[in-house]
Automatic annotation (TrEMBL):
InterPro entries given in the database record: DUF3732, P-loop_NTPase
Protein name in the entry: Atpase
Keywords recorded for this protein, A-Z: Coiled coil
Residue ranges that the Swiss-Prot or TrEMBL entry lists as coiled coil: 385-472
UniProt-listed Gene3D superfamilies: P-loop containing nucleotide triphosphate hydrolases (3.40.50.300)
The organism of origin for this protein: Shewanella decolorationis S12
Pfam families membership: DUF3732 (PF12532)
Length: 668
């Protein structure tokens, strides 16, 4: 997202304003230690919605009444700010055009302060419009709340390289030390890169809902099928009884046809089940009755056989349990004590009895071992018992059904004997049959099939729409672009010889960075020696990221702002105590402090000049190619550098040189 910081500033408690102005492209704030350079990145972060005030304690925090940032987002000008005494609120004011003279203490009227959470949502609206990022409503139900929506705080990870991060070998991104924040940034990157929008998540939710509906309807179909089968099994006996009562020798309508078209069967039966078609002389009912009794006898015999099998198996299980218990109680003698036999006449010792005893002990040991190792049969018996029990239940149900049919026939015969008409019994049986057929109709799947067909059509359209996003492929393409840009950008930096040519790889799926050696070995950042290597990995990656963001234009919601705080500290570590009046004086002091074995200050200055030259060239090229470039703000000690592209370093500093002053002068 095309974003430009106009001004970062502080209003002190006396109402005085301390602004720092910026322009597009590369900006440098240079100065000695303790002047407030590093406070700028912290002020921006605080005004950008951070719940924690990390502005360095000192003159600034002691005297500040208001921190503010004036910026433009796609040429819409806004001023955001924080009052350190009201941490739960933040200032937001939109303006037609920014004029630094308008910024006074009175400008920050209390009516423009709003709760921090509301402020962040409102500010987020300038970068992206996203309300619901749950792909799964089921996951939301389990979680008990909506998934965290993208926050402007996630943008900070792509914009800010603090002093303790810019050359860190253990971390690349700001806020990634907290797993939850890291996971949110990684998960929301597909949104930030414009690979998905709000419609994507609504489509994903609808897909999940419709898929669940299909599964529910399929289960209902299966239930209906089981219900229908159950009722179909009852139709045959009732239909046979109806034909028997009518005295029909042959089936008027086969069971198969009745079950296939229940409604047609009812219409047909209505025509043939009439009084005049009853055959009173037919013995069909008697034959049907005898057939049922014969079937009942067979089922009874089958049930008795199964019951005997069950009793036998149970007895075997009991016997084995008793056998196992006895084995547990059995123990063989560990020692055999047999005295030697002596002949009472010649006093000769005999060992025959001892040898026999030893053989007996060996036999006992072998038998007891075999018993102990014998495989129990209980499990097999129990499995057999389960099968037999199931068969008993099946046969019992069949027997009960046959018995009920016989009872119904006997009941009908009794009613006839009591001078009730045969047709009354026929009508009762017909009503019973029609009730069963109506139940089968109720379980008809035609309506369910239509519902499933309609849902599948909707799912096809949704899948087609979702396929247009292809997030996985989009992330792979984005990663490949970043790797391509890093190869070009990194070639201009002074990596150690063992890492040349630099071959950095980055993945938007894992957010890992590594150097790929010619033999495909991966060297991760933490394993790359030297602070310069770590610095250039950070700079190369973030320049490549913002180049890609710039190419995406308005599709990318990440602001085109990049802070580098103290990037040259790897070359001038002693500059943390830089109190010299000029940068030249500090360089001379640094040269004196260095040992003869260390690299010369001049060599390090050349490396620093190359760093700033590449930053300047980068901004110019992106401006030329895309119409705008990321706004890069570097806060550092370095000054009076000679850039290779002929750009004046002083033009980059743009009056932000703090050697004789700081962001806020000491107040007497």
């Amino acid at each position: 997202m095309k974003t430009l910081i106009h001004e970062i500033g502080v209003i002190d408690k006396q109402g005085n304003k301390h602004p720092v102005n910026f322009k597009k492209g590369l900006n440098v704030v240079t100065g000695k230690s303790s002047t407030g350079k590093s406070a700028l990145i912290e002020i921006f972060d605080y005004c950008f919605g951070s719940s924690e005030n990390t502005i360095p304690k000192g003159i600034i925090t002691k005297n500040a009444a208001i921190y503010y940032v004036a910026l433009a987002v796609n040429e819409q000008n806004i001023v955001i700010g924080r009052d350190p005494d009201i941490a739960s609120k933040a200032f937001f004011r939109r303006v037609e055009s920014f004029n630094t003279d308008d910024i006074t203490r009175d400008y920050f009227n209390s009516s423009y302060f709003r709760p921090l959470a509301e402020f962040k949502k409102h500010l987020q609206g300038f970068f992206l419009d996203m309300d619901d990022v749950d792909e799964s409503l089921e996951a939301r139900t389990i979680r008990g709340r909506k998934a965290a929506t993208p926050s402007i705080r996630s943008f900070s990870s792509f914009m800010l390289q603090h002093q303790n991060l810019v050359a860190n070998k253990h971390a690349l991104f700001y806020r990634f030390d907290e797993k939850e924040k890291r996971d949110q940034v990684v998960d929301h990157t597909k949104i930030f890169l414009g690979l998905v929008n709000q419609k994507f998540f609504h489509l994903s939710q609808e897909k999940e809902r419709l898929t669940a509906d299909i599964k529910r309807f399929e289960r209902l179909k299966e239930t209906n099928k089981r219900t229908s089968e159950s009722y179909k099994q009852n139709v045959g006996p009732v239909l046979s009884q109806l034909y028997a009562l009518m005295g029909f020798k042959d089936e008027q309508l086969s069971l198969e046809k009745v079950l296939r078209h229940p409604q047609d069967a009812k219409d047909h039966l209505d025509k043939i089940i009439v009084p005049e078609k009853i055959n009173h002389n037919s013995d069909t009912a008697t034959q049907h009755y005898n057939k049922l009794k014969l079937s009942r006898n067979h089922k009874t015999a089958e049930l008795r056989k199964l019951q005997r099998q069950s009793a036998s198996i149970k007895k075997h299980i009991q016997e084995e349990e008793r056998f196992v218990d006895n084995i547990k109680q059995f123990s063989s003698p560990k020692h055999v004590h047999i005295s030697t036999s002596v002949c009472p006449f010649c006093h000769t010792e005999k060992d025959t009895l001892l040898k026999s005893a030893e053989k007996l002990q060996q036999a006992i040991t072998k038998v007891s071992g075999n018993l102990a190792q014998a495989r129990p049969m209980k499990a097999k018996f129990e499995s057999s018992l389960v099968n037999v029990t199931r068969n008993i239940e099946i046969v019992s149900r069949a027997l009960a059904e046959l018995n009920q049919q016989i009872i119904d026939i006997e009941k009908t015969e009794k009613q006839l004997a009591e001078q009730k008409s045969l047709y009354e019994s026929v009508i009762i049986q017909k009503a019973k049959l029609f009730a069963l057929l109506d139940t089968i109709n109720m379980a008809n799947d035609i309506e369910l099939d239509r519902e499933i067909k309609d849902i599948n059509k909707k799912l096809k359209d949704i899948n087609k729409a979702l396929a247009q996003y292809d997030v996985q492929k989009g992330l792979e393409i984005a990663s490949a672009k970043i790797n391509e840009y890093m190869a070009e950008i990194g070639s201009h930096f002074e990596f150690e010889a063992s890492y040349k040519p630099i071959n950095l790889h980055f993945s938007f799926e894992t957010f890992d960075l590594y150097h790929m050696k010619p033999d495909s070995e991966r060297i991760y950042l933490r394993s790359m020696g030297s602070g310069a290597n770590w610095l250039y990995c950070h700079v190369t990656l973030f320049l490549a990221l913002h180049k890609y963001f710039a190419e995406l234009g308005e599709k990318c919601s990440i602001p085109s702002i990049l802070f580098f705080d103290q990037p040259t500290q790897v070359y001038f570590p002693n500059f943390n105590r830089d109190n010299a009046v000029t940068f030249e004086d500090q360089k001379k002091l640094e040269a004196v402090q260095r040992a003869n074995t260390e690299r010369s200050v001049d060599e390090d200055v050349k490396a620093v000049e190359n760093l700033f030259s590449q930053l300047s060239i980068y901004c110019d090229e992106l401006e030329k190619n895309n119409g705008f470039s990321p706004q890069i703000i570097v806060t550092d000690h370095a000054d009076n550098l000679t850039l290779s592209n002929g750009i004046s370093f002083d033009s980059l500093v743009n009056k932000n040189r703090w050697r004789t002053r700081g962001l806020i002068e000491p107040i007497s």
